[in-house]
Amino acid sequence: MVETIRYGLVGTGMMGCEHIRNIQLIPGARITAIADPVDNSLAWAAAALGAERPASFGSAEALAEKGEVDAVVVASPNHTHRAVLAPLFERGVAILCEKPLATTIADARWIVERAEAARAPFWTGMEYRYMPPVARFVEQVHAGRIGRLHMLSMREHRFPFLAKVGDWNRFSRNTGGTMVEKCCHFFDLMRLIVRSEAVRVYCSGAMDVNHLDERYGAEVPDIIDNSYTIVDFADGTRAMLDLCMFAEGAEHQEAISATGDRARLDVLVPPGELVFSPRVPLGALKQVERETVAVDPAAMAAGSHHGATFHQHEAFARAVRGEGPVEVTARDGLLAVMIGVAAEISARERRVVEMRELD
């Protein structure tokens, strides 16, 4: 039982600083150590920390050895996760590792093995589960409001990938590819909502608009900026993801629709509106119901995920204190990565990928 949780943070770039702002909102939480090999990133963390002055380290190894911490948040670049996690597992601290769990299935499986053998909680960071409107949407689908779920559709129309330190996110070797890096959030949500496992994936995607004129030495970026992905689940449910990363002018960045044999339910983010549309006889008056889910202003202001990062940290803190379960396991992270890898293969080879190919 931990009353005051001493947090360490590995990776203090954009997402790391979002974690700092949200940890500061958690009662009984204190950031006591940060680590990043880049001085500019440490300076960003110092600005986010305000008056707090935790111990500062240049590596995860140094933080694991000398940092006085109970829990560590890993927000370093995707391809570093296995190396960063190794000394933290040895230390035996609770861990929240940002998505994607890893860039390869092999590394993700290694992490799962270590996490499942550890006594301390291990949590895969999947913020989209914790957006209050999305959480309400999932609750209503699971409660049977739409009847039996048959079709699940997700759309994210948003801005291009942001610039990161060293431009690491311009190359699939570092990110796992867009379908792993970005879309693992949605593949995780699909599994959560459907409550079944993927059996096959088809993805049509390419890099058509963004990054075409960018050059990094002699290299050209190779990341998908738009795609359609269809996932068939073992229980017969079909799910689809529509991704566009050159649609920053769209009114709704995320939209999810669940259609069952009794009704359809949509969630729109922003503004966080749920739209319930029951089936009616042909020609009858439609009976649409609307609900806007409020989000705490402080949680909204502390991050760019519609309040989700704060609510995820609330749940993680409960797990660290022994007051609640780990809600997003390392295995959840692995299975989301596997769907993403299948989608990357499908887009590249222009074929359906059976999930059993990846076993």
Molecular structure report:
The chain has 359 residues and is of the alpha/beta class. A hairpin with a 3-residue loop joins β12 and β13. The strands form two sheets. The protein has a nine-stranded mixed β-sheet. It has a six-stranded parallel β-sheet with strand order 3-2-1-4-5-6, with helices on both faces. Helix content is 33%, strand content 25%.
Q: What fraction of the residues are assigned to beta strands by DSSP?
A: 15-25%
Low-confidence stretches: none
Number of DSSP E strands:
15
How far apart are the first and last residues' alpha carbons, in Å? 38 Å
The level of helicity is: 25-40%
Rg (C-alpha, Å): 20 Å
Total helical segments: 12
| Average residue-wise pLDDT | 97
> How are the strands of the largest sheet arranged?
14-13-12-11-7-10-9-8-15
Q: Which structural category do the helix and sheet elements fall into?
A: alpha/beta
Quickly describe the structure:
This protein has 359 residues and is an alpha/beta fold. Helix 1 packs parallel to helix 2, helix 3 runs parallel beside helix 4 and helix 9 packs across helix 12.
List its salient traits.
12 helices, 359 residues, six-stranded parallel β-sheet, alpha/beta, globular, 15 strands
List the helices and strands and how they pair.
Elements: E1 5-10, H1 14-23, E2 29-35, H2 39-49, E3 55-57, H3 60-66, E4 71-74, H4 81-91, E5 94-98, H5 105-117, E6 122-125, H6 132-142, E7 149-157, H7 172-175, H8 178-181, H9 184-194, E8 198-206, E9 226-233, E10 238-244, E11 254-260, E12 263-269, E13 273-278, E14 289-292, H10 297-301, H11 308-320, H12 330-349, E15 353-354
Parallel strand pairs: 1-2, 1-4, 2-3, 4-5, 5-6, 7-10
Antiparallel strand pairs: 7-11, 8-9, 8-15, 9-10, 11-12, 12-13, 13-14
